[in-house]
Design brief:
Blueprint lengths: L3 H13 L8 H12 L5 H12 L5 H38 L3 H40 L1 H18 L1 H8 L11 H15 L5 H18 L8 H26 L7 H25 L1 H16 L5 H13 L6 H14 L4 H18 L2 H31 L5 H31 L1 H4 L3 H21 L4 H18 L1
Helix pairs in contact: 1-2, 1-4, 3-4, 3-16, 3-17, 4-14, 4-15, 4-16, 5-6, 5-17, 5-19, 5-20, 6-17, 7-17, 8-9, 8-10, 8-17, 9-10, 11-12, 11-16, 12-13, 12-15, 12-16, 13-15, 14-15, 15-16, 17-19
Length: 480
């Protein structure tokens, strides 16, 4: 069994290569902690993924905190969350505090490195998808067929925007729904039908999910807000009915472990208060306003990184806390090309500029950056603890076992969209490489294929694969 030190070093490593968003890191964390270190079971990790997927906040930070708590107690929970979130947020604040010329040069190197790292992550995502399919095939052919259908449906719902961008197609795809809304629709389907796929259940769930997804798709084919709200209310009511029916049928009580839940929430609350207190005491009105908006933004951080950047703009730019040029010219650029949680990086960056704008001092900027960083972690993990312990009390129910059973094919479908997104990110970094878009696209495919051959056929370790990718991209950049 891995030690706490080894576990934390793994969290730092994942945080340093965390390109592609939270969902992309699900298989990376699993490979590092579950497969290699065998620190926990796949069943426990799948439950973490389910809860983190329906909780606002930074998904990889929540996964790290849960793994740390289960295996090393409260200390492991705190240190794991910090280890996962710190690398990206630290580099953001560091670059915001240095001269623009140094920042520009450093960003170019980061963009070049991201091409190699993204190609490596695409390989890891493929391994995860292949593993899901193998697990289903080993059970029976029927399960494999259903898993493929689920994966394809999820992929079609999610990848429209990235596919259009990759093919340079103008216009708006019909769906291109966010991960959050796809997962909510999937959970509704499972909770309402309870695995009983009769005509009534299929008709009602397909009708409601169709309206819901068309309403939240990029094309907004259902634009009537009243229709969308009625649909959401019906979905919520039917989902609650499905869970209630299952509880009644099981004839068991499912008490929530309130003591454990309260303990976790209090730990994060205390950490947040202690880290925020210096800023509150010295800069009372500014600190309180920032904390208020930071908490609200973290609670509203559903729908992925792009959606959060829109929320943050409204709360911090439109309110006048930071300038538009600081937000879009500096923070957004950094958080999009650096690894780590967009929520953690953004709140740390906004905090730095708010503090700097308040006094003109770098020290004040760093003080507020710490407040924003800790706010992002504490809110994410605090809400995760509440939902986790509530879910944990019900996970023996048939409907929740169904969610655990089908979460992997759902995630596999979402990861195909992540792979397209990573490919688009690499193409966008072509100017840093000094190559054309087509050349970087071909390079990405070649690196992806090289990773697959070396990793699958010759069993080269992930660390060496990552090193090889970086050597290739920097070597080609030097030649060009």
């Amino acid at each position: 069994m891995a030690s706490l030190k080894q576990f934390l070093l793994s969290m730092v490593k994942v945080g340093c290569i965390g390109f592609g968003g939270g969902s992309a890191l699900i298989p990376v964390i699993e490979d590092e902690i579950i497969t290699r270190q065998q620190l926990d079971t796949k069943e426990n990790y799948d439950q973490d993924v389910v809860v983190a997927s329906i909780t606002p906040g930074a998904l990889p930070v929540e996964l790290a905190a849960s793994l740390g708590k289960r295996n090393f107690g409260s200390r492991g929970m705190l240190l794991a969350a910090l280890s996962m979130a710190l690398p990206g947020a630290f580099v953001v604040v560091l670059l915001l505090s240095v001269f623009s010329t140094m920042q520009a040069e450093f960003l170019t190197q980061i963009e070049i490195a991201s091409i190699g790292v993204s190609s490596f992550i695409m390989y890891l995502l493929t391994c995860y998808i292949a593993g899901v399919m193998k697990q289903c095939r080993d059970e029976n052919t029927r399960r494999l067929t259903r898993a493929i259908i689920i994966m394809v449906l999820v992929m079609l719902l999610a990848f429209g925007k990235n596919l259009y961008k990759l093919l340079d197609v103008k216009g708006m795809p019909v769906f291109a729904v966010s991960t959050f809304h796809i997962l909510l629709a999937a959970f509704f389907f499972i909770l309402y039908t309870r695995g009983q796929l009769n005509r009534k259940h299929i008709f009602v769930s397909v009708l409601l999910c169709g309206i819901y997804l068309l309403g939240y798709g990029k094309a907004h084919l259902v634009s009537n807000i009243f229709v969308i709200r009625i649909t959401e209310a019906l979905m919520l009511g039917l989902a609650v009915y499905g869970v209630s029916w299952n509880i009644k049928k099981s004839k068991k009580r499912y008490p929530v472990d309130k003591k454990a839940m309260t303990n976790d929430v209090v730990v994060w609350l205390v950490i947040f208060v202690l880290c925020s207190l210096p800023a509150i005491i010295i800069y009372f009105p500014e600190a309180i306003a920032f904390i208020r908006n930071g908490i609200v933004s973290a609670i509203m951080s559903f729908g992925g990184g792009d959606a959060y950047l829109t929320v943050a703009e409204g709360l911090f730019v439109e309110s006048g806390m930071i300038t538009e040029s600081q937000y879009f010219g500096q923070i957004v650029t950094l958080v999009n090309i650096l690894p780590g949680s967009i929520l953690c990086k953004t709140l740390a960056g906004v905090g730095y500029y708010l503090g700097f704008n308040t006094t003109g001092s770098m020290g004040t900027g760093i003080l507020f950056a710490v407040v924003g960083f800790v706010c992002s972690i504490a809110v994410s993990c605090g809400f995760f603890a509440i939902i986790y312990h509530t879910y944990d009390s019900l996970n023996s129910l048939h409907v929740f076992r169904l969610i655990s059973r089908w979460i992997r094919p759902i995630i596999a479908g979402l990861l195909i969209n992540i792979m397209l997104s990573l490919c688009n990110q690499n193409i966008a970094a072509s100017s840093a490489m000094g190559c054309s878009h087509k050349a970087v696209f071909v390079l990405t495919l070649l690196l992806y294929g090289l990773n697959y051959i070396l990793g699958i056929r010759y069993k080269v370790s992930n660390l060496w694969l990552l090193v090889i990718n970086l050597l290739v991209v920097f070597g080609l950049h030097f030649i060009c």
